[in-house]
User: Which sequence fits this backbone?
């Protein structure tokens, strides 16, 4: 009995030390500009009033502006998409937010790249993990979706700092985190526009970066990761059960990115079949009639991600289409039978090659 | 499931809870046996066939050898035996025991050869046959069972010990199975001796907080060495050795030194992890390392590095070979043509040559490891042969063995030598290792630029490695004189916990938490 008490006390001590260490390192080393700090707080502040959620990966994160949506729809939306978010992570976040908010609709930005990703992007999961509220939720998330090594990485990712020696950064972090601006949730970074929307004013120059253009071979439905597919079904079923409207959206990408996918028809067919199976909407902006004209390189920051201009323009278009859809109008007029880049084998492809 | 994974720690914790349940105290060895087989099966169920085959043959050969020993003892106890009868009987009995041992060796080495060396022989045969005839043998695709090189030697050692009367044969088949499959040491040793292990493995014991505390300390130290040092250095050595064409001989030489440290931290880290686990279970496994980088000669290095393997080859190969008739006659013939001093050494030279060839071949079925073993053997043999000249030379230059500077020089020299020999294990193939040697000899051109010394390595990662190495060196230095855990236990609670915290934080902050190596460790591939 004495031994058990002794061991239990030591285990408790180890846990306390580990928690304190994580908190201390996070406080000192997590950049005060990190959008996730402010996004988490905003999410908490808006608790109980969010009616629209934008979910997905980085393309959604940079493509859906809650501010534009809220103005057009008189709503309160939030963008909970994060870079490299797996659909199992999306599901967990969705469950958390629908439980504490009167969510009426969900826009799920699809990411064919993530659907076929073999390796798990742990840092992507870490960003989602940060948005979870409370120890219980975090523990549940860790034990539900991850291997033990991933669990350890996620729980301690803030201590895996690449530059422990950069004390000037630590000084800046501590100074800002102790300031009233930080307490008032003012993000000094111009890369975050609030409510989860990440922005950039860069314009894509047409160069393909190896690490960005990750799909080199043609996308194929039989390459889809079973775990991701299962999570996608779970998300749709969850929303349907709770009578939350869910719309699958494939936001615009650059012509170069489309070219690198090979034939986008299979991607379109894949999501379209799922949408038909569950009787939900799938708005494929790769099939958007004015994709080439309206979403040129000046609307993107890189080959795949929209910049601020592109994101805001796209959200405005989404709002307009959604309003028409709600009014019972036929929105099919906006979308073509095929991707405009492939519609004729002349104009579109030539534009890509440029 | 590798021993450096969290799944192993969870598996071990569950096993530990069952192991110390008062209700199973009598059957603790059964818990260990089940855990060992579960652990082994996690690496692939097919491997179990091989370990079972080894267990069955070992059990029956040890049984036969043991019975022959008992027979002999019984015979010698009888009072009415005549001297000539005794001699004749002894010889007959010895022959029969040797036959039993031979049977064990043939079956188990045969199994090892079949799974590990078959393709090596086929490839070499094809290479030779290509020049003579169009005959071409296809490679066989057999899985190499985890730890087969280790448990094969352990089993053979046990049967030899039984046949020599050094150990009693185990009557319980399942206890023999536990001795061969004991999970902490199955993947990469230490190669245990039955006499040492059996008493501990089959005994029942109560939970001891002291064992838990000491075990956890060692476990933590092992994880530190593995994650903060070994796996952090690995990307650097991989970069150098996989692209050695692009680097100068100097970078390759440095890479070999890094590789020496990496392999040591990796292998000794593993030993600390499994030693810690065993300590918690109240079982002390044999030590495999004794700060080898403090060695002053290659021979000493091999007495401090992979000790149980060295001892195995010494006891079961070197001694029998050097005392064999062939070795004695070699010595006798040598006296006729060579100086007595050299001729005297011939039996050991003969035995050493075979031992080092076998050591190299044991590590891997490839020419580069055979070269590696032969090179080690040549250096050790030549240092034995020229020992007297070496001493004379030291006298001429007034060099004293006790001098600190001389000792430091010897340590550095040994480290450099060991690192240079690592060229055979660092390279991907024999040709690559020879190319690397060529590059070191012809294109050394030392330059102390960061990109030359640490190609493609982030500066922050280098700082982490240096931090880890500093701690590693200090602890190793203290270990040379004291048992660190005993020293630690005398320190105040705060000091102890501060040290634990530093290790724990280092693992979490700087450690590489995943590894893509088969078996999780460098030595698991052998």
Assistant:
């Amino acid at each position: 009995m004495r031994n058990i008490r002794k061991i239990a006390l030591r285990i408790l001590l180890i846990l306390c030390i580990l928690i304190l260490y994580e908190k201390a390192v996070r406080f000192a080393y997590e950049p005060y500009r990190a959008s996730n700090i402010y996004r988490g707080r905003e999410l908490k502040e808006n608790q109980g009033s969010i009616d629209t959620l934008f979910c997905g990966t980085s393309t959604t994160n940079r493509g859906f502006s809650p501010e534009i949506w809220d103005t057009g729809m008189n709503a309160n939306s939030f963008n909970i998409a994060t870079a490299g978010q797996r659909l199992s992570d999306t599901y967990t976040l969705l469950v958390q937010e629908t439980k504490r908010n009167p969510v009426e609709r969900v826009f799920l930005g699809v990411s064919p790249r993530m659907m076929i990703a073999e390796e798990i992007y742990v840092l992507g999961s870490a960003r989602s993990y940060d948005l979870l509220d409370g120890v219980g939720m975090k523990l549940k998330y860790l034990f539900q979706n991850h291997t033990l090594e991933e669990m350890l990485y996620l729980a301690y990712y803030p201590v895996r700092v690449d530059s422990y020696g950069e004390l000037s950064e630590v000084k800046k972090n501590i100074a800002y985190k102790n300031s009233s601006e930080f307490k008032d949730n003012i993000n000094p970074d111009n890369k975050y526009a609030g409510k989860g929307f990440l922005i950039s004013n860069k314009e894509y120059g047409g160069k393909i970066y190896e690490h960005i253009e990750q799909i080199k071979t043609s996308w194929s439905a039989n390459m889809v990761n079973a775990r991701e597919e299962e999570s996608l079904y779970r998300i749709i079923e969850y929303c349907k059960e709770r009578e939350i409207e869910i719309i699958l959206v494939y936001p615009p990408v650059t012509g170069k990115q489309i070219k690198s996918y090979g034939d986008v028809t299979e991607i379109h067919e894949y999501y379209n079949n799922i949408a038909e199976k569950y009787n939900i909407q799938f708005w494929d902006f790769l099939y958007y009639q004015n994709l080439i004209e309206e979403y040129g390189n000046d609307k993107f920051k890189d080959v795949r991600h929209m910049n601020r201009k592109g994101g805001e323009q796209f959200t405005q278009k989404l709002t307009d289409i959604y309003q028409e859809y709600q009014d019972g109008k036929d929105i099919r007029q906006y979308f073509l039978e095929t991707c405009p880049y492939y519609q004729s084998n002349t104009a579109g492809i030539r534009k890509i090659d440029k | 499931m590798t021993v450096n994974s969290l799944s192993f720690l969870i598996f071990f914790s569950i096993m530990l809870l069952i192991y110390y349940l008062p209700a199973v105290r009598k059957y603790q060895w059964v818990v260990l046996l089940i855990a060992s087989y579960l652990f082994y099966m996690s690496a692939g169920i097919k491997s179990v066939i091989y370990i079972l085959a080894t267990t069955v043959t070992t059990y029956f050969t040890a049984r036969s050898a043991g019975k022959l020993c008992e027979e002999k003892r019984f015979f010698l106890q009888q009072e009415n035996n005549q001297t000539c009868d005794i001699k004749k009987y002894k010889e007959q009995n010895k022959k029969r025991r040797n036959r039993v041992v031979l049977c064990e060796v043939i079956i188990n080495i045969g199994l090892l050869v079949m799974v590990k060396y078959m393709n090596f022989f086929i490839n070499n045969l094809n290479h030779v046959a290509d020049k003579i005839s169009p005959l071409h043998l296809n490679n066989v695709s057999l899985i190499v069972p985890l730890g087969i090189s280790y448990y094969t030697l352990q089993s053979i050692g046990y049967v030899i010990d039984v046949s020599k009367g050094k150990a009693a044969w185990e009557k319980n088949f399942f206890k023999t199975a536990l001795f061969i499959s004991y999970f902490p040491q199955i993947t990469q040793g230490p190669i245990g001796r039955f006499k040492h292990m059996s008493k501990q493995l089959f005994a029942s014991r109560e939970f001891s907080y002291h064992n838990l505390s000491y075990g956890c300390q060692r476990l933590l130290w092992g994880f530190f060495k593995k994650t903060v040092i070994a796996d952090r250095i690995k990307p650097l050595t991989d970069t150098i050795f996989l692209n050695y064409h692009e680097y100068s001989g100097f970078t390759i030489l440095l890479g070999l030194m890094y590789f020496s440290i990496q392999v040591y931290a990796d292998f000794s880290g593993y030993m600390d992890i499994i030693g810690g686990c065993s300590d918690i279970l109240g079982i002390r496994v044999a030590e495999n390392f004794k700060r080898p980088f403090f060695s002053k000669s290659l021979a000493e290095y091999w007495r401090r590095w992979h000790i149980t393997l060295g001892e195995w080859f010494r006891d079961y190969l070197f001694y029998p070979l050097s005392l064999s008739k062939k070795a004695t006659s070699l010595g006798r013939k040598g006296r006729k043509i060579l100086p007595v001093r050299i001729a005297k050494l011939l039996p050991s030279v003969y035995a050493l040559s075979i031992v080092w060839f076998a050591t190299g071949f044991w590590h891997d079925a490839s020419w580069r490891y055979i070269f590696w073993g032969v090179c080690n053997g040549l250096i050790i043999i030549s240092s034995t042969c020229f020992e007297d000249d070496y001493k004379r030379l030291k006298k001429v230059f007034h060099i004293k063995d006790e001098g600190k500077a001389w000792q430091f020089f010897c340590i550095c020299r040994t480290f450099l030598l060991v690192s240079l020999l690592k060229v055979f294990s660092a390279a991907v193939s024999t040709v690559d290792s020879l190319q690397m040697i060529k590059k070191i000899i012809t294109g050394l051109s030392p330059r102390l630029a960061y990109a030359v010394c640490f190609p493609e390595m982030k500066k922050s990662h280098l700082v982490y490695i240096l931090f880890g190495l500093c701690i590693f060196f200090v602890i190793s230095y203290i270990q040379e004189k004291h048992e660190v855990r005993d020293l630690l236990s005398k320190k105040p609670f705060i000091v102890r916990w501060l040290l634990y915290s530093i290790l724990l934080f280092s693992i979490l902050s700087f450690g590489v938490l995943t590894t893509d190596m088969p078996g999780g460790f460098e030595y698991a591939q052998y």
Notes: The interface with chain B takes residues 3, 6-7, 13-14, 17-18, 21, 25, 148-149, 151-153, 156, 159-165 of chain A (CB under 8 Å). The longest strand of chain A covers residues 245-250.
